[in-house]
Design a protein that fits this description.
This is Protein-L-isoaspartate O-methyltransferase domain-containing protein 2 isoform X2. This protein has six helices and nine strands. By secondary structure, it is an alpha/beta fold. It starts with 10 loop residues before the first helix and ends in a 27-residue tail after the last strand.
């Protein structure tokens, strides 16, 4: 997916192109994109491709195309102080941008299947905090990443204001995802080849909007241990 806008010479030019093409439409999202250089989340030998509107994958490390992240950030309608859950949090690039908007009273949790990618995300987060000129200009809600399968969240998991899933969701898991949301919350996920925004308008009421056609790798089904038990993912509790 990607290729919707021209490549930039640097991060700012890429953001200019995304704005011109109406993928980035709000100032809050624009500021977050400008504050975090996409190239910082690439391996060094692949950074030449960082400002192209293309997805990038190396092993288990993956970044969606900038136009997709733009649509996701806009659809989430992020506000300071909200709680956010990123399922398939990957490099932490999206979670860090979200953290710039959530501010010091938000909650920012990520679940990533592959432990080496979780470690990669933590290193990138540490680098951003220690070296970025942008960091001191924002009140940051630091992401917290755990390793596990997002289809195995503990049943006592707190509900969130905003949820994003970065892998293709099968219809059979739609209700599972929707139940991670508080009333009034927004879920954005690839559902049946469409990036989809679902708003929980009541305890059992939902509004669904298809945003655009996408192609995402599907969620990986849980592997049960030899005892037949699943490994539940524990997320840090917070007061809602």
């Amino acid at each position: 997916m990607g290729g919707a806008v021209s490549a930039g010479e640097d991060n700012d030019e890429l953001i200019d192109n995304l704005k011109e093409a109406q993928y980035i439409r709000t100032e809050r999202v624009e500021q977050a994109f400008r504050a975090i250089d996409r190239a910082d989340y690439y391996l060094e030998e692949f950074k030449d491709n960082a400002y192209k509107d293309l997805a990038w994958k190396h092993g288990h490390i993956h970044l969606s195309a900038p136009c997709i992240y733009s649509e996701v950030m806009e659809a989430l309608d992020l506000q300071p102080g909200l709680s956010f859950l990123n399922l398939g949090s990957g490099t932490g690039y999206l979670s860090s941008m979200v953290g710039l908007i959530l501010g010091p009273f938000g909650v920012n949790h990520g679940v990533e299947l592959h432990s080496e990618v979780t470690e990669y995300a933590r290193r990138k987060l540490d680098l951003f905090i220690k070296t970025s000129d942008s960091f001191d200009k924002f009140e940051f809600c630091e992401p917290s990443f755990v390793t596990g399968n997002c289809l195995e969240l503990s049943p006592d998991c707190t509900q969130y204001d905003r949820v994003y899933c970065g892998a293709g969701v099968q219809k059979e898991h739609e209700d599972y995802m929707k139940n991670l949301l508080r009333v009034g919350g927004i879920l954005v996920m690839p559902l049946e080849e469409k990036l989809t925004k679902i708003t929980r308008t009541g305890p059992s009421a939902w509004e669904t909007k298809k945003i655009l056609a996408v192609s995402f790798a599907p969620l990986i089904q849980p592997c049960h241990s030899e005892s037949g038990q699943s490994r539940l993912v524990q997320l840090r509790k917070y007061k809602g």
